[in-house]
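Researcher: I'd like a candidate sequence for this fold, 229 residues long. If you have to choose between options at a position, lean toward the conservative one.
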């Protein structure tokens, strides 16, 4: 598979950012040991103890996915602030937040900063492996239940509906809602009883109408505009 930098890679390059050594090293070890036959494995190319360290080493490490904690004990940028800086420096970089906090405000801050998804630290190893793979492939990934809470919180604090939202068909809106809650194209197809190809056609049509580039941007757009229910 060729990544956004044009390199053919057999593995997904991951950087783990967390200030708890046992957790950071454990995640790095567990990911490094995974890689089932026929699927891309993982190479943990760097670890960092906080946001400041991550910003110093990310260019040299060149990860595909950054696993980012939100709250660090030391002074310096938070996980959300670090995410924003990383994405501003490299818009193609994908950040998956891995946090013990399920607070709506934390999830909202992470997504607004540019994170591709948000996973709770209570997730199983299989869930983490799946989330990192999906993030690398461009999906928006959330721990089950968090997306709905986030959308409700955004609606509560938002000023109101946006008049400049381009017209979407009813089916495009249904697909967009599913994308915003982290469902894969195949899951959306099953939920709406349509084909996988039809889902992809609706996604591409919605991307063109909204002038966006990928499913992560679609999910962020839906959240920020209160388009999901």
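Model: Candidate sequence:
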């Amino acid at each position: 598979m060729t990544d956004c930098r044009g390199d053919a890679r057999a593995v997904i390059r991951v950087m783990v950012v967390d200030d708890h050594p046992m957790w950071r090293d454990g995640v790095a070890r567990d990911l490094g040991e995974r890689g089932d036959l026929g699927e891309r494995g993982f190479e943990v190319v760097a670890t960092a103890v906080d946001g400041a360290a991550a910003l110093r080493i990310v260019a040299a490490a060149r990860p595909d996915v950054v696993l980012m904690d939100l709250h660090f004990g030391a002074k310096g940028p938070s996980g959300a602030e670090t995410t924003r800086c990383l994405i501003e420096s490299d818009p193609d970089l994908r950040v998956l937040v891995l946090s013990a906090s399920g607070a709506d405000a934390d999830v909202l801050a992470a997504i607004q900063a540019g994170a591709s998804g948000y996973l709770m630290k209570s997730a199983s190893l299989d869930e983490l492996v799946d989330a990192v793979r999906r993030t690398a492939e461009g999906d928006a990934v959330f721990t089950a239940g968090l997306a709905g809470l986030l959308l409700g919180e955004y609606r509560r604090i938002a000023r109101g509906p946006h008049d400049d939202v381009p017209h979407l068909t009813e089916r495009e809106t249904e697909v967009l809602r599913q994308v915003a809650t982290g469902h894969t194209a195949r899951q959306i197809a099953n939920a709406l009883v349509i084909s996988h190809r039809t889902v992809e056609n609706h996604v591409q049509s919605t991307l063109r109408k909204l002038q966006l580039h990928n499913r992560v941007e679609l999910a962020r757009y839906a959240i920020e505009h209160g388009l999901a229910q």
